[in-house]
Amino acid sequence: MNSKRLFEAIGNIYDCFINEDAEDIAAVKDHNVLRPTRVSPTMKVAIPAAACLCVVALGAYALLSRRSTLRA
Known about the structure:
Elements: H1 3-11, H2 15-31, H3 41-71
């Protein structure tokens, strides 16, 4: 399809279809608005503490498993 035929095809769309689609898009945009969530002060401390605990546990596991393979 060349550009002239495409332009004619787009130009022959009825306005009622365009308005109907525009209303649907506006309704979807209003519904999908992202709202920021609040993080409680407790969670601001608990999440990094849990991450540090996981790192320490992983390091301890790695050290203990390394010792057991050296003794065997």
